[in-house]
Amino acid sequence: MLRTIKQSGFFRPVAILACSAALLSFSYRLGSDHFTISINGTKLIEQYVATKSPAKVIYLDKYNAEDKVSIYYSHCGKIGSSRTVLLKDSRNNTLKEWSFSDSQKEAEMTFKMKDIMTVQHANKSARLSLYYKAGELDKAMLLAGINSSQASTASVTVPDDAFADRKTSLLNK
Predict the structure, then answer these.
(1) In-domain check, residue 153
(2) Out of 16, 75, 128, 138, which residue is the most buried by the measure of CB atoms under 10 Å away?
(3) What are the pLDDT digits (tens) for 38-74?
(4) pTM for this model (two decimals)
């Protein structure tokens, strides 16, 4: 019977279709920049740069000063060079900057939540934005908005060209 199925030409197209469906069912996008933001090991944000989704918002009132913020950014599966995370206000002024090594062993960029809270309190700003900058990007990339609480305005004010890098970095690859 197996021989009859093979001879009928039915087996091969069905096998190819099944394999194709299995491979296409995965959500991982090969060759795409992506990032994750976690707090205390709990993933809050995961985004592929190719998708032009609006920036997600992190609300500070949900966290403690000693909580650990971790950011992982992948440039098509590679760690960036000259990596920096920036905290900016709604006028695009850099208020805090963290620099990280280019080491594969230290792919995650980590800092304490109190660093963000201190800047937010000192500047009396309810809304801040978290950016990522690396040698592989033309300019800083918006990762997330930061609000003092959910009671404050949920929208994030960002410059009009905040997503420009997402277009140019993909075109240059």
Answers:
(1) yes
(2) 128
(3) 999 999 999 888 777 788 898 888 899 999 999 999 8
(4) 0.68
